[in-house]
Amino acid sequence: MANSFGSLYVGASGLQSASHGLNTTANNLSNINTEGYVREQVVYEDKNYQKIGDAAVSTQYRGLGVQVGTIVHARDIFLDKAYRQENGRHSFYDASSEAVQEVITHLQESDGEAFKTAIENFEEAFEEFAKNPSDTVNQNLVLQKASLFLARAQAVEDGFEDYQTIINSKIKEKLNRINEIGKSLVDLNKRIQTIEAGRVEKAMELRDKRDLLIDELSGLARISYEEQPSGVVKVEIEGVEFVDEINCHPVGILENKRTGYVTPYWPQLSEINDPEDETKNYYYPIFDLTAVSAEKNSDIGELKALIMARGTGWSNYLGYYDQNGDPISTEVYEKGIANSIMMNSEAELDTLIHEVVTAINDIFAPVTSASNLNALQGVGSITYEDDEGNIVTVDDLTKLKVLDEDNCSVGSDKKMPPKELFVRNGCDRYTARDVTFYVNKLDENGNPTDEVEEKNMTLYFYNEEDITDTSMCYTLKSLTINENLIKQEAYLPHLKYQENTWAVDYNLGVSLSKIWNRQDFHLNPSDTTPCGYSGFYVKWIGEIGNTGNVYKSTAQSLEGTKEEIEFSRQGVIGVSSDEELTIMIKYQSAYNAASRYINVINEMIEHVVTSLGHP
User: Fold this and answer.
1) pTM value surpassing 0.90
2) Where do the H-state alpha helices sit in 320-467?
3) Is residue 97 within a helix (H) or strand (E), and if so which, with residue range?
4) Which of 39, 192, 264, 511: disulfide with 203, CB 3.0–4.6 Å?
5) Is the alpha carbon torsion for 89, 570, 200, 182 positive or negative?
6) What is the rounded radius of gyration, in angstroms, for the C-alpha atoms of the chain?
């Protein structure tokens, strides 16, 4: 009877096990469309065996049936790691590609016509001006096309800066999302640990949510993670602990008060003693943007790509110069501003504007050293009174830049200094100063004597560009068309005093026309192939387009790799309705088989009991 009832218990264990299998399969089917859900599988194991005796060669045991050993997540940790790495790398190149496409979009205003046409029209205006500089129609044409050229360039620059602001907003959102994910991971870790502490139940649903958050985090930044025996997952971002056993170390957000641009940092590794003065503090950066490459496995994470694309601020042609005003090296360029598509594009555009504007202004209102002026030949030094009333002595006239009065032209007003076409908001091109100097008197034959005489004249000192003050530089943000010329186009320099009369300076027009054919313009410090101003646009678009194609093709390739890994991963963790229905039929059959088995055992026991009751 004991063996018979034991057999009944074996059947009951089969019913229970099949019932668990049916419930698990039904749960899989009901969550087939739930994002992040991982298929659950039932793992069976034998119940304890009972020793019933010793035989001649072995010990005899009686089994008590089957039981559910555990219900496991069907995950492959290697596929998870591979997917999360490729997800982060794809996000990096996809964000970079999007930024490049945005630059091209701004440059191709109205299908690439606006800015390119403005450059071409500006060049044509000077060709017409060269034919007859005194013609007011040609003068007015130069002013119109100059205004259009400057307006188009400033519109492109404004578009770049607007997109930088958009990127900055995205960066804020991503940083806040990272901190939200960190808090959620800590909460899930605690709940999972609480549920699984008794080693009876698995927190399947909570684990699914946690894995889904880790998937999302892998696209935002380069992460590493490890699950502890307690069930807690520790996460690092860029090699620094982000989530530990009990805490989340949130990402700090440092906002520049001038630009509004945000920079992520680690508060726990920083030294912040004066929140009101950023210059007195040290903020430990999350990302090292000077060493991003596939070789170093650092080209991972959308957030890093966005920060690189946006850059640290607005840029101009001064981005290609160091603090001393010297051009930066190719190595410094490639490790710095070249990594930001937005800042580099702004600097390249502004470099073109600066080169064109200064070249034109240097012809309309030429600059030379004071030592080259005929009136100062043989003069050792000059003195003048500065704006504060101090007497200043200049001993080296080669270093003093002034208006080249001997070779300049003037407008119809015949006034000095001549009007420049483009003016800076921060200062005039020249400042008139009365200077005093001493020369030897000449005898009746024109030879110098030992007697010295004092002379006075007005010099027009050139106000040089000041790299510490962009308002004094010929850069897009500080440029406008000369208002005096807008009011009267005839003030545009075109007359030169020759042989006691004023004549049209045709050489000036020819010189202005020739600057467009110069082949000495470089886009950036690493550009080794010079081009002309007219070829700038084609070369610029080509450079940006090549960069965009590299990012786009890399992103597409990585997307294919990511999808391939995800397909393999879904083959493990995904729920297939056909497969689950097949498994359900298997468990249903097992349940029916166990039920029939119990019926047979029941009938047998009943027969035995009945037989024992009738001698």
Assistant:
1) no
2) 330-335, 341-364
3) helix 77-107
4) 192
5) positive
6) 41
The Cα–Cα gap between 393 and 242 comes to 63
| Contacts with 395 (C-beta within 8 Å, 6 or more apart), sequence order | 380, 381
Smallest CA-to-CA distance from 536 within 548, 527, 549 is with: 527
Number of alpha helices (DSSP H) and beta strands (DSSP E) in the chain: 13, 20
Sole residue written with tokens 């602001």: 165
- Assign 112 a pLDDT band (cuts: 50, 70, 90): very low
Give, for 170, the enclosing helix (H) or strand (E). helix 136-196
d(CA 336, CA 319): 10
Output the CA torsion sign for 182, 188, 190, 193.
Answer: negative
State how far the Cα of 346 lies from the Cα of 103, in Å rounded to an integer.
Answer: 10
Largest Cα–Cα separation, the chain: 169
271: left (phi over 0), alpha (psi -120 to 50) or beta: beta
Question: H or E stretch including 89?
Answer: helix 77-107
Q: DSSP secondary structure string, 467-524?
A: TT-GGGS--GGGEEE-HHHHH-GGGSS-EEEETTEEEE-HHHHHHHHHGGG---B-SS
Binning the chain into helix, strand and coil, the percentages to the nearest 5 are 50, 20, 30
Dihedral sign for Cα atoms in the order 560, 565, 568, 573: negative
Read off the DSSP letter of residue 336.
Answer: T
Check the CA dihedral 107-113-116-118 and report its sign: negative
Q: Is 446 left (phi over 0), alpha (psi -120 to 50) or beta?
A: left
Query: What are the strands, taking DSSP E only, across 378-447?
Result: 382-385, 391-394, 401-403, 422-424, 430-442
Assigned token pair, 342: 């937005």
- CA 315 to CA 342: how far, in whole Å? 8
Q: Which H helix or E strand runs over 235?
A: strand 233-237
Residue range 367-408, pLDDT digits in tens: 999 999 998 988 889 999 988 889 999 999 999 999 999 999
List the Cα angle 295/250/270 in 5-degree steps.
75
Distance CA 65, CA 13 (A): 6
Does the bond joining 448 to the residue before it have cis omega, within 30 degrees of 0?
no
Which residues is 461 bridged to in the sheet?
402, 431
Confidence of residue 519 (pLDDT cuts 50, 70, 90): confident
* Torsion 554-556-557-560 (CA) sign: positive
Give the span between the Cα atoms of 457 and 554, in whole angstroms. 66
Q: How sure is the predictor about 418, in pLDDT bands with cuts at 50, 70 and 90? A: very high
Torsions phi, psi of 550, nearest 5? -65, -50
Identify the CA nearest to 404 among candidates 283, 508, 311: 508
3-state secondary structure of 373: coil
Q: Do residues 533 and 119 make contact, with C-beta atoms less than 8 angstroms apart?
A: yes
Residue boundaries of the structural domains of the chain: 2-74+574-612, 80-112+161-340+551-562, 114-158+344-546
Q: How far apart are CA 96 and CA 90, in angstroms?
A: 10
The token pair that represents 498 in the structure block: 């020759």
